[in-house]
Fold each of these.
Amino acid sequence: MSATNSVLSDDMLRAFAERRAGYDRENRFFQEDFEDLKKAGYLTLPVPRELGGRGLTLAEMCREQYRLAYHAPATALGINMHVYWLGLVADLWRAGDKSLEWMLKEAMAGEVFNAGHSERGNDLPALLSTTKAERVEGGFRFTGHKMFGTLAPVFTRYGLHGMWADAQGGPQVVHAFMPRGTAGSQIVQTWDTMGMRATRSDDIKLDGAFVPDKYVARIVPAGTADAFVLGIFAWALMGFAHIYHAIAQRALALTVPGVKGKTSLAVSRNMGYHPEIQHMVAEMRLLLDPIGPHIDRVAADWSNGVDHGAEWPAKIVSAKYHAVEACWKIVDKAMELSGGAGMFRGNELEQLFRDARCGRFHPANTFLVHEIVGKTALGIDLGEQPRWG
């Protein structure tokens, strides 16, 4: 989908940009943005056309997320937690697996999905879990403490996972979608953070919360990435990558006119003529230019069904890591080039600086990225544990 036929009109994007600072300052959920996006059909863009959506692929959805994030990063990040579920399920649907068609139909009926994978002490989200999944008649009961429950004010289906430790044949990870308001679940308002504040990603406590079998999406061996789990990583992390690419692009767009508009008693013309300023701006461009081709290629390969086999996890986490790390360095340089103006609340760079730092908290973290990429390059099974001596 090109910008010319996108559901994101210029007027919408301007409104998102105008509301951005207020959401951040007040630590308030992006409710008005959410309503506009929902009304425009943004929340169902990945749903196949046959089911009433627009059938956007990962590559196409990432381009939309980039445009949204350029104007309102937190809004894009929050919505990413909904669209990535629909995207991966749509991919499975097109591949002939209709078992989760109900999710696509529920989305068309107005249900809003979010993600509950983050847990303290678990650096392998979705693959392992500290949450207990207990098999009972008709479904599972979940007990645990989830963090970063994005879209807390509006979600209606909570995408969660838990460890079924006593499953026959060995521990299994149960992936399910819990309806909002389920007995034994509680939203805990913990969200008062450094950046990405408008996402309103409150914690959720689970104390024997029952999810019926009809809302159980997958049961897979612990540590295993089947097509469903790999799809989570592809759609979520490539969305993250494009969001942080947009932040980096925005930081550069703010920096250049700012530099050219500054003067100094030590320079006869504007600061753009200072050789060290030119050097730092060049470094920003050198960091920025490779991001787009890298992440666009990975998203396109996924959308086109390119068979990278066992290389896929490494390719996905590498793209996200590259985008986030380059974004952080670019925004850091933009802040330095601001000459101190970026330190003040109300300066867009100040918010971008805080938002950019949050990218390193999103999975996969730097330790897991290096483990996945290193093991893949060396031909070592990702599930193999190190043995010393």
Note: Strands lie at 113-116, 132-136, 139-149, 157-164, 172-179, 185-188, 202-212, 216-221.
Amino acid sequence: MRVAGVMSGTSLDGIDVAIVEIRGHCVETIGFTATPYPAAVRAAILGVSNCPTHTANISRLNFQLAELYARAVLAAVKRYGPVELIGCHGQTIFHEGRSNTLQLGEPAVLAERTGVPVVANFRARDIAAGGQGAPLVPFVDYLLFRHPRRTRVALNIGGIANITVIPAGCAPDDVVAFDTGPGNMVIDALAREFSAGKLNCDRGGKIAASGNLNRPLLDDLLRDAYYRRKPPKSAGREQYGVEFLARLRQFGAPLPDLIATATVLTAVTISLAVRQAVPGPADLIASGGGTHNPQIMTHLAGFLPGVAIGTSTDHGIDADAKEAIAFAVLAHETWRRKPSNLPSATGARRAVVLGSVTPGI
């Protein structure tokens, strides 16, 4: 079955579409596209994310994003050929694990524009079953990266960073996964501020390289109890949004120093999580936008001596496309009425079929 996976994450960098061919447990990537969000759309998303807003803004954005998703899917289909199903994660604007979550991107619009069935609203059923609603990608990490003799840790560095620990030769119930803390979210916001809106990220880690680590600030940030809390656990803009940025600014450090410190925070919290979850040797398989930041990757190598660090691209899965690929696979499981959350990762009481299906034309 040919499936399109649509992902727009907390980094707010745009819409990723992966088209994959799924045969049993074999997943072949046919093509991948990335469409940046217009500046006005990014601002609109920030304007309704974890902050007071008007229901009209949320409703309008719900339909506007779906139109953008449809255009992105149709462009990918024009380039790589038709699909039979779409899995759309939607744009998260609020998330409280075990309690509630909200992703925008009206699936009815996407189905109407493309004529293809759409699976959406993946996180709600896991929360209804007592889970965090995140992370959901570990099911796919297990399918793609498990190894009979090697423990593997799949790391995604998006807006939020998360890991999936896949012990050697393990069963699905042995997988552990959780959000480690900030990924690119804080760095990106500070880079936009530093550049007066001209940059959406610290490209190549250049700003961080020009700054200095503020050790007192880092020590203060690392006191957050979240980093010592046992999984399952999840994080989002609620923890690392406007209030967190205001906390950083209170230290009065120059922006390059704040960016350097935020970069180390991302790497050190990932490393702490890996060391806590995997006491022995392991392969770290990284994906997401953070893999393009050499400052993050260099810090990780320094904090994790003895861990073999590579990217999912090294294993045949494009590091930029992995999350979109994952939601194509999850949609396929939903279409087959198969559960695809891992209770060991989300904390749900049981495995459940995720998402809701909107028929195509």
Note: The chain has two domains: 2-132+321-358, 138-315.
Amino acid sequence: MFPVSGTSQEIQAITASGTPSPTPLSIATPMSDRSTPSQSPRSMISVAAIQILKEIHAVFRPSQPLCPSRILVHSFNIANKNRTLKTREAFIYDEILVRAGQSEVRGVCWIGGKKYKPFLLLTPKRNSEGRLMYSEAEMKMHMCAAGLNIAPKLYPCRRVDGTLSLTKSSIVRFANQGDLLLFFEKNTLNSKILIEIAINMAIQVDNLHLLKIYHCDIKPENFLVHNLDSGIHIFLSDYGLATREQKFSSKRGTKGYTPPEYASFQESYDGIAADQFALGATIFAVVLQKSLDRVFEHKYKTRFTISDQLLDYDGFSLFRDKEIEALIDEYVDSAPNFEPVRKALKGLLKTNPMERISIKEAISLLTETVASL
């Protein structure tokens, strides 16, 4: 099974004395007020730095060559454990590789000592009014999750003089395989590996809940894959919709992964239950390489109108569960050793949030199937 750092027992031991608040190293970069980094005086760019930027670029834009003239050089300060500042350089490729969540993403080669390290620069998008889409709470939740290796390491960007950058940017550790969708585009994987990936995703969501953080936007695009010598590590990213409030009233998430109770008259929703359903839909997408929403809508969803769901939600729930179960039985391998996978999906995708199985139960069921393959 692929290794995931930070077991439930380790996290429970930490949270027993309070929620951890890891403090990352301070980074300073001379960022401008614009969304595009300003260019500083050019220094010699080594072959190693260019190679790292090429590797980052190739994950997002495999068919496009890197343009060396778009590499910008920046100086920043980084604090060591004794809080003394040391000047470092970063080479930033000034092209938006992807717009993820509320951020624009660029590639970075960070030079620490004599080591060249791949990172990403996340710069907040601007809304229709021209304001930066930045959330201090989002960054803090990401940093808390990163402290236990659930999310990739993230460092707020700062100017060389130590003041906060007006762009509210951050540098985040690069997952060298990109998100799950990019990973699946480049690799053909067998059922055992796909289920192991599903287990790793579930472990990270369960660990996040132990930190009292509810993601509320679980989907394949928000899981990142990092290839290590010992295997691969799955990160959970994008905390733009995450909350520390288990009960919330505003609907959060992405169409196709939002729970069915959003169609009811409920006054509040449960973060654990919402993540359970979204995880089930994501596991369906990962294990079967098909979108649950598209398959379900094509086969069944047209039988129910919005008014049906609102006026007779209990009746809708009963029929929806039967049809989801029939769908899972149709698409998941019918072999006996895949029965636990079917049970896990049916349990996570229950229409009634009170009937959904826990993520730990789902992990146990999925592990049963892996052990038998």
Note: The two ends are 12 Å apart (CA to CA).
Amino acid sequence: MGNWDFARSVGGIRLLADLGASHGLAPREVLAGTGLRQRDLDDAGCVVSAEQELRLIRNLLRHLRQVPALGVAAGLRYHYSTFGSLGFAMVTSRHSRQALDVALRYFNLTHAFTRFEATDSEHETAVTIDADHVPEDVRRFIIERDAAALVAVQRELIVVSDALRRVELPFPAPGVTAPYERAFGLLPRFGAGRTVVAFAREQMLLPLPQANDLMLKYSEEQCVRILERHRVRMGLAAKVRERLACNIELGMENVASALCMTSRTLRRQLTQEGTAFSAIRDEARIALAEEYLVVLKLSVDETAYRLGYLSCSAFITAFRRLTGETPLVFRKRLEREASGAAGGR
């Protein structure tokens, strides 16, 4: 499979944010540094980058490192419906082995960071999961998550309960293995040379209840269209957002130069994508402003200064225009919500 750096629907990040919330984390703690806001998670059309998802995963690990098998818990939250049209293509396949092939064909509509390779023997269909290219600090979480998500989705598709035959994980056995046994229904072999999830081949070939060749064809056509939309949504505008996230003070000339084009070309191509440099910069500023105000607890004056506004009043005006609230009202509301969530734990 290809590299993990592809555009993703917001659904995967939403599941991870919900995992954090289930452990008492506030949205600002989960989303810190991602450039995303809570309302983005509620936008079904929102497309995110792999780097944004990695940042959110790192936030979870920083706050919840003591939780055993955290990646497995994340993976079990995935369902075929999580993947939209791809999930519908899977469930309308003739059997689970074909559904697996469909998933591999449109792998960039999943939320995986690993690479999957499926092989068949007389008795098994084994999926080898390659994570060598994944950043080391998140590798274990992602291996656990992607393996558990594979198992969770296959369990929804296969009409029998004992199709999973073995799970091999490349890291040493943890002190507590019960969460793994509960999740997989068997004890994985830890310390293996690679990650493998194997299913009984005979059961992978059982007919699926909702198999429908016509709907499968339609769903695959939708998958192609969605991949193209993701490509457009994560085009030049996404590159501009990444540059501004690293340095909000960059102007259009600086960004255009870094992208090896003139500012005129940059302006024209952004217009073709339905946006403008000023709009992207406003979005980046507001995302940073929310982090400065709520997470770092900076004053409004300091936040305005860091974001490059000429005056505090200019920042307040811009913030109200883009969010419907003043910076102080926004911060107090989130603090109240966080306080209420903490009181209910």
Note: The domain at 235-343 is CATH 1.10.10.60 (Arc Repressor Mutant, subunit A).
